[in-house]
User: What shape does this take?
Amino acid sequence: MRRLSIYTGLLLLAVTFTGCKKFFDINDTPNSPTSVPPSLLLPTGLSGSAFSNANELNRFACTIIDYQAGAGGSPATYDIYNTNGADFGNQWRFEIYGGALIAYKKMIDAADATGAKAYTGIGKIMMAYTFAIATDVWGDVPYTEALQGDLDVIQPALTTQEAMYKGGTGVTSLFDMVRAGLRDLDTVTTSSPETDDIVYGGDIDAWKKAGNTLLLKLAIQISKKEPALAASVINEVLAKGEDAYITSNAETLGVNFGASTGSQSPVYYYTYVSSFANDLIVSTRYVNRLQALGDPRLDKFVTKPSGSFVTIDNGFRGTLPTPTANWSRWSSTLLGANGVGPVKLITNAMRAFILAEAAVSLPGINLGGNTAQGWYTEGIKASMQDAGLSSLEIDAYFTAHPEVVTLSGTVEQQVEQIITQKYIANTGNGLEAWNDWRRTGYPVMPEHDNAVGIDGTRPVRAQYIDQEVARNPAFKNGPLPNVKVWWDVN
Amino acid sequence: MKQTLLLWLFVAISVMPALAQTRTISGKVTDAKDGSPIPGVTVIVKGTTTGTVTGAGGNFSLSADQNARTLIVSFVGYETQQVNLDGGTTYNIGLKEDPKSLEEVIVTAQNISRDKRSLGYAFESVKGDELAQRSEPNVLNTLNGKLAGVTITGSSGAPGASTNINIRGITSFTGSNQPLIVVDGIIFSNDLDATENTLFGSQPANRLADISPENIESVSVLKGPAAAALYGSRASAGALVITTKSGKELKGKSEVTFTSSVSFQNVSGLPKFQNQYGQGANNDFNNTSSNSWGPAFGTIDSVTTVQGVRVPYRAYPNNVKDFFKTGSIIQNGLNFSSGTAENNISLSLSSTFQNGIIPESKFDRNSVQIGGVKTLNNGVKLMTSVTYVRSSQRGVPQGNGGSAFGQLTRIPRSYDLTGMPYQDENGKSIFYNLTQNHPLWSTEHEKLQGSTDRVFGYFTAGYNIMKWLNVSYRVTADVYNDRRRFYNEIGSVRNPTGATVRDNFFRSELNGDLMIKANKSNLFTEGLDLNVLLGQNINQRDYQNVTLYGEELTIPNFENPSNASIFSQSGETVRKQRLIGYYGQLSFGYKNYLFLELTGRMDQSSTLPSDKNKYFYPSAALSFVPTDAFHIESNVLSYLKLRANAAKVGRDAPPYRLQTYFVGATFGNNLASITYPISVGGSSIPGFLTNTRIGSPALSPEFVTSYEGGFNIGLFQNRVSLDATYFYTRSSKQIFDVAVSNASGFDTRTTNVGLMTNKGIELVLNATPLKIGAFQWDVSANFTRIRNNVKEIAPGIDNAPLEGNAFIGINPSIAVNHAYGVIIGTKNARNDAGELLINPSTGLFVPGIAGEVIADPNPDWQAGLTNTFRYKGFSLSFLIDTRQGGDIYSFSMTDLKNNGSLEITAKDRDKPRILPGVIQTGDGKYIKNNIQISAQSYWGALGGLASEGAVYDATVWRLREVAFNYSLPSSVLRRTPFGAASIGLSAHNLFFYAPHYPADPEINTQGAGNIRGLDLNGAPNTRNYGANLRVTF
Assistant: This one.
């Protein structure tokens, strides 16, 4: 018996000493893939860009830029110009860098490996668009060293906004990134997106137009600082002909969402589903501006459940109107019914106003038979059509308001007319309106009531987020929200 | 100190019948002074392992070798006696009390029984009768305040809500800092699984809740990592070794014990409300306002609700209190055991039914245990026990906004919360706030139900190869399935279109332990004893979570998932990890006054890189008893023991931390969100994204090094004894997801970084101040002071958030040069002199500074004091404990200050106020703030959700427990069928005093875990009181 026990014990030991290698080889996660095809990353990136544009940053910009007023929570804070490093952490971390951009980066890597040039092309165009959001909001941001955390670059250096737009040693400019994307789209691809492309459903020609129109947007953004470079990029696009860029509302670069829970566009969800909806209300200033112009888009864009507009002034700190059910909010015409969107990132109207502004204010634009007035008219009409106005209604407006629809006066006055109309056309896209206002100073907007901020003036950039300041020495001592970004010379 | 059962167990495990010719020796052991029988006395044949313990009447009987010459009779608190066997078969033995005795035999790791004097580390144990029948169904809550070095915090008074326990502070940045739980040798899961976001969810139980306090024989607390060699890394956070009531030595007889108790619960710790002002703001009534800044009562007679009903305008002083019900806890237990030490069987049944103070909430637990011992004719001893438990829980969501508790702090003082209908005939909520639901609607229609089926048990086969050599193999299993059902009715705030969720958690832990034990006395030299233990452990842990997450419901009040149309948040997570450990323990004892113990363990873990998956950790402990070594005989100094130990423990990583991978994509939060797959234009579109964490293929184990020194001193024949301990632990190479620049595309990277230390003092004082005849007054006190300090996180990193859910701007964190778990939020701006800065145009605080440490949840010190009075069959004990310092971050109090509900906000409300602080003048100097503001602005400014205005000192004194018990005297029992009977009254959390917090600060909304000190609109605590009964047949 004793002997038997000893043998049994030795046997047990022997069994456990052998075969250990396999026994321990169980640490590869069965829960998650370590690589995925580009088609699983494209929709992620696109919706990430849409969130970057249309979630919290948009609520900030929409209050700053007088589209809406803050009635509670963070929007009420923004409305008196208060913003600091505690704001937009989620946007930077999970929508821009840790959302859209890393998705595009991984998609481009995966697509390059298989020759899926359609994906790399779209990826580069949308990466440029999303990096532009980052630099337009924060100024100098990680660019050349960004998105390589898994390659041990965990504290990427900042690239100046100037270098991002203009390029330089070791820096591919945003323009060149878009151009590279356009070249990819002209190359044979091993696979093409279908329904995973929640913008164009796999229409590569549409993506090419979007890429060229993005070049226009990027160019006009730096036009006050670098007029010659801006003009050359715009001429480069114009030279490709009208078929090369967005010329109809159907070609607008808009990210589509769904009507069901968990699929809805962020701005719709916030406005119509979330319990935070009453933190925002349409601004009295916005309603007044459109009413002064007699603009028929007001009734299309803004709700009035009680039959009249219920709004508050920006910076208002009194008792809020009741009931909240009567508040004026963005309409489903503007946001898309039931949350399907689209979240419009680059529209046909924007393109027309960019060209109009370039024609008026930039030297050496190759008009090629077009006129500033023509593009201006095109922009207003495109926006009005997009708002659901009939051509009869549009014509009636044009007839009744020649002083609005006709460019006149000095270059500066014409720019003001163009940007003011662009502002109306961009209703709901706070970031683009904020970009234009910072760039041009239009539309002219008085300071908000009870304004605080750094010095009582509108923020002209966002402060680096606290997390980055804590994690990356490159972000130490970043500029405050009252310091202008590089292209903002106005 | 009658540890009958325990002693019996030790003997039962180590004693094997001799195979030689035997004779039977029996007898009775009594107290030499008064002749009363002593049960539980160890009787061993000298030079052998043959022995037994005395039964209830002090009787014993054993089979001894024909040649046996001497019996050794020993019992805690008595002098050990040697009895010469003169050939008789019956011996009556009188034991004399040992004035020097303070020590006792206790259970340490792996069921090894040890004389307490030989331990080189601090040790405490709590007996079952100090835990049972205390009007509290959670074991951890019944331990609270009774142990030095142990910090226990309940999360709320919701039935089954989890309770956090940390022993000697926190030693791991991200790992579990809860002690290892061992039940009858079975490694027992105390995991807490969340179905909902912990910021808002209902509070599921920690799985130790599956053990009824009524079934516990004793709880031993191994505080330092000294036990780690025998149990593995997880015991580096200490271990709770629980022994349940199982087989008893009944000398072939049978015994049935029945216990029963009924307790009631009331809500406790609600703040004091004002009852002078009603709903509204700026002194105007407003029927949708959640504020009580409206007109004073008496100024208007009636108002119209938002539903159009005309109601009187008056205070409803109990509107919040009346939301809560009287809860009840009914516990019954039946235990049957029969047999002898070698062959016995036991069976126990236990049930707990709790209806909580929160409407609809409950916790039920039913268990059955069967176990026994069988000694085969060939000497192989088999032991087994299997327990089946079913626990079920129904909770309601808590937290900020969108829950009953998110609304309870926003009930205007003039709102008749419980006196008006809360839903209409269509089941829609009726409430003053049209975007939120009535709290009673929420508790009825928003729920999380859990039902856990759990089986745990062990099987051990042991054999004495030699008299001094024992080999055993033990297999243990702990397996459970926790089936959750979460339902949010259509119209709930958090899921406006409804949600019905099935969330199943499966966990299993299997352990196989081969143990070879040897012991030799008088080895090499007289008085030198040696014990050797060699062991090998094979461990496998499995986890599976399957979630079916149905959204967009169509039919109201229909919970089947067929009612849902979207399932995009569904999925499965599995985890598997394996470990093999080889361990050894060498214990030397010299003449019973000098002891040295050395341990070592090598683990190999599946969760580490294959070239770094083996790691070794040693420990050494020394104990010395000068009073025995130097034969000190003194009426003052009765006993002195000095002890010291050093230990190092390695810990592996959680599974799957080595790789970087992709996960299903989501964007946003409760403001707006999407979850892939999304549905666009009729197509379901899947989307993936990189996980936010960068994996580390070069991960290595993390280590905790601990040093401990202390002494035990007994004075005045041990009427007073003090046990003092100082400890220092150093945690290094922590496996931590270090925050990285988000511009890298990721959020964290798993790395070995950091350094954290804990220093602490533990004191345990026991005394018998009075002993006059049958009256005795005992005092037991404990004191704990722990200082934790995070020394380093990672290069360039000053702070990092803890793993878990957090609100933006309110981050439970680690921060360099702060204690673990500080909360980082927005601090009020101050000048260099530390004065608060006031905005000269508004009279309010200037904007605060984000990203600052604003609260530290770690208490400065804590202490407990138990007084017990005994007179004949009566005993009365009460436990007072305190926690001094430490902060609580409270949404609830912020709400109540902001909305003018707290009593203090009504004081001089009509008078203007001035915030404390200074105003900067044009020349850069500061003048005292003199700007008058309204009471509403004043209290609003002092509130502020994401600011230091929400932080309070959580100091609290508490009458935690009162227990009165009466055991019927044997003169009465003789006329009954009962062998013993007692009745009692008990109360839990009867009274508290928190000088700096308007409510009860012992609350932790996120439940057990490393995140502490947050009240995020959680449920309040309860006050429990009840009656109980115990009879033995």
In short: Confidence is low (pLDDT under 50) at residues 1-20 of chain B. The first strand of chain B starts at residue 22 and ends at 31. Chain B touches chain A through 101 residues (CB under 8 Å).
